[in-house]
Amino acid sequence: MRSAEASGASVTGFGAGKGKADTRRQSSSGIAPVAHPSRPGFSPITVAVALTALLSATLFVIYDAARTFDDARRELAVIGTALASEIAELTPEEASAALEASSRRFITVARASLLTAEAAPVAPMLAGLIVPAEPHGVLALETEQGQTWTGILQRGGAAFALAGLLTLLASRRRTDMPDLMQRHNFSTLASAIPLGVACWTKAGKLIVCNDQYRSRLQLGGGAMTYQDAVKRLSMGGYMKLLNDDDGSRVLELHREDGSCLLIEERPLGHGAFMTLVSDVTEARRADTMLHAIRQEQRLLARRYHEEKLKAEAASRSKTNFLAHLSHDIRTPLNHIIGFAELMRHQTYGPLGDARYADYVQSIKTSGEHLLASFATILDLAELESGQKALRSEPVAVDEVLDSVLQRFRAQATRAGLRFVLDQPCGAVVLGDRLGLVRMVGNIVENALRFTPGGGRITLAAFAARDGVVIEITDTGIGMNEERLASLSQPFALGDATFTREGVGPGLGISISRAIAELSGGHLAIDSSPTLGTTVAISLPLGAESTRVAA
Question: Which end of the chain is more exposed for a tag (fewer CB within 10 A), N or C?
Fold first, then answer.
C-alpha cells in the first residue's frame, strides 16, 4: 500500500502531482462533455481490445480442444497396444470378457470392442481409436466424451471470462466512479480471483474490492477511501518498498502478529489503479529459516575449519616435538651405553669393588631400554607425519604370519602358552613386508604379555574378493570398554614406567594401527574381561592376488 505522503497516488491515485495532463478535455465553454444516453460509449481502443480478447479466447478453446482430444487418442493408442498384446493369445470369448473388464482397469476407456476389418470406420474418430488386434480383427476404443467436453468447457469459460474482464476494464466510462452495472461486473470478476483485489479511482475512492482484500487487511464492511486503508494498515506494522517504477509499485506489509502481506499496485488508466494483496507469511518464514540455516552452516563450517587447522597444527607440533626429542635423547643415550660397555670390560683398568660391575650392567640395560623406547616413539612420529614411507610390493599374507610364528614360538613355549597358526589363505596384498611383520608382531607381543600360562594365541587369515582379514586371538585377561576406548590413543599404558619389566611406552597398538592405515586397511579390537581379546586387521588385496576362498 502507499502511504498518504509517499504514494504516487496520493489523494488522487496514480500519477497525481506529476504534471500529467488529464486525458479528458473540457469543451471551450468549460463544461465536460456528457455521453449520449442512447449510444454506448465504446471507444475504438475498447472495440480492438474486445475483439482481440475474444479472438484469443476462441483460439485458445480451439487449441485446447485439439490438444485434449489428441492427448486422449495418444493415451488410447498406448492402452490399445497393451490390450491387443494381452488378447492376442486368447479365444474370442475370453478376449471379449477381457475387453469388458478394461473399462474398470483404465479410467479413460469408456468402451472397448472387437470389430472386423471391414466393419471398422474409415474416417478418424474424434474421441476414439482403431487399433489392429490380430487375429481378432481390430480393436475399437472410445473415451468418455462427457468429462473431456466438461474440462474443455470449463477452461473455455475461464478464457472467455478473462476476455470479458479485459473488455470491461477497457470499456470503463471515463469518469472517476463507474456506474452501478460496471461496479457489479467488477465485483463479480474480483470475487473469482483468489487474491485480494481492490480498485480505486484517481481521487482514492473505492470502486470495488473482494472479500479476500477485506479479510487479509482486516478491514470492516463499510465504505472507505484509499487513505483510510493506508492509515489503518500503517498502525499495525511497517511497510517495506520492494520495487517502484513508472507503472507499478510492490511493497511488503509486516504486521505485529508476524504475518506478511505482499501488496502490488498497478495503474488502470485515467488515474485509477488496482491493488493486489497476497499472503506470503509462510514463504517469508521459510526464507528466513533457510537464511538462518545457511548462516549457521557457514558459521559451523568456519569453526570446523578453524578447529581442524588447530588440530592439524597441534598434531604437527606434537610429532615434530617427539621427533626432535627422540633425536636429541638418543645421542647422549648412545654415549652412556658405550661408556658403560667400556667400563664393563675394564678396558683402562679394574673398577675396584665388584658391585661396580653390576651397577655398570644396570646402567647399560636401562640405557638400552630407554633407547628402544625412544626409537619406538620416533617411529610412531614418522609414521603419523608421513615421513616414513612404506614400500608397496606383493606380500604373501601366509609368509607374514609364518614369520611372526617363528619369531615368538620360543617365547610362547617358555610362557606355557599354545601358539597356533590357522589354515593358510593364499592371499597376496600390496604393502611393506617388514612393516606388516612388525604390525602383526606388536599385537602378538601384547597377547603374550597379557595371557597367563596355559592360555592360547591363534593367528588366522581370511580372504575375500576385495580384501583379507588377519585375526590375532588370545585367551588373556581381556579389557573392559573404558580400557578398550583408551587404546585409540598413544601411550595407552598410562600406569607403565620405563623401569617396569617387560612394559614399554604403550605404542605397539598405535604403531600397528598406523601401519594398517598407511597400507590402506583398518584395525579393530574386540575384547571382554576374562574371555580374551581379538584384534582384526583388514587389508586390501593386490591386483594379482592368488586368493584361495576361505
Answer: C
Contact 109, 102 (CB under 8 A): yes
Distance of CA 108 to the CA centre of its chain: 38
C-alpha cell at 321: 616435538
User: Hey, what's the cell of 208?
Assistant: 470495488
Q: Please, which residues bridge with residue 276 across strands?
A: 197, 264
Listed in sequence order, the residues at least 6 apart from 223 whose beta carbon sits closer than 8 Å to its beta carbon are: 206
CA–CA separation, 313 vs 378, rounded Å? 18
Write out residues in the chain with pLDDT < 50, as ranges.
1-40, 174-175, 494-503, 546-550
Q: Give all strands (DSSP E) within 397-515, no chain letters.
A: 418-421, 428-431, 456-463, 467-474
Mode of pairing for the β-strands spanning 418-421 and 456-463: parallel
Sequence-separated (6 or more) residues with CB below 8 Å from residue 465: 541, 547
Pair 512, 400: CB distance under 8 Å? no
From the list 467, 433, 470, 472, the residue with the least C-alpha distance to 547 is: 467
CA dihedral 280, 284, 286, 289 (to 10 degrees): -160
DSSP H or E stretch at residue 489: none
Residue pointed to by grid coordinates 469518469: 175
Omega prior to 490 cis, within 30 of 0? no
Long-range contacts of range 211-219, CB-CB < 8 Å, 24 or more positions apart? Answer: 212/277, 213/275, 213/277, 216/261, 216/277, 216/279, 217/261, 217/277
Q: Are 382 and 512 in contact (CB under 8 A)?
A: no
pLDDT digits (tens, 9 = 90+) for 247-271: 788 888 887 777 888 888 888 777 7
CA–CA distance, 367 with 332 (Å, rounded to integer): 10
Nearest residue to 510 (alpha-carbon basis) of 527, 476, 487: 487
The CA distance from 95 to 504, in Å, is 87
- What's residue 26's pLDDT? 34
Q: What is the CA radius of gyration of the chain?
A: 47
User: Hey, what's the cell of 268?
Assistant: 488502470
Beta carbons within 8 Å of 474's beta carbon, 6+ residues apart: 447, 450, 451, 455, 456, 457, 458, 532, 533, 534
Q: How far apart are CA 453 and CA 450, in angstroms?
A: 10
Q: Using one digit for the tens of pLDDT, what is the confidence trace for 79-105?
A: 777 777 777 767 777 777 777 776 666
At position 264, the amino acid (one-letter code) is E
Give the list of residues 6+ apart from residue 497 with CB closer than 8 angstroms, or none: 503
pLDDT tens for each residue of 323-341: 677 677 777 878 788 878 8
Identify which of 12, 375, 419, 367 has the alpha carbon closest to the alpha carbon of residue 176.
Answer: 12
Using the structure block, give the residue that is written with the C-alpha cell 633407547. Answer: 371
Q: Helix axis angle, 180-191 relative to 145-170, nearest 10°?
A: 140
| Cβ proximity of 274 and 199 under 8 Å | yes
CA 213/CA 469 separation, integer angstroms: 73
Pairwise CA distance, residues 251 & 354, whole Å:
103
Provide CB contacts within 8 A for 125, sequence distance 6+: 142
> What span, in angstroms and rounded, lies between the C-alpha atoms of 378 and 383?
9
Given a contact cutoff of 8 angstroms between Cβ atoms, the answer to whether 358 and 508 are in contact is: no
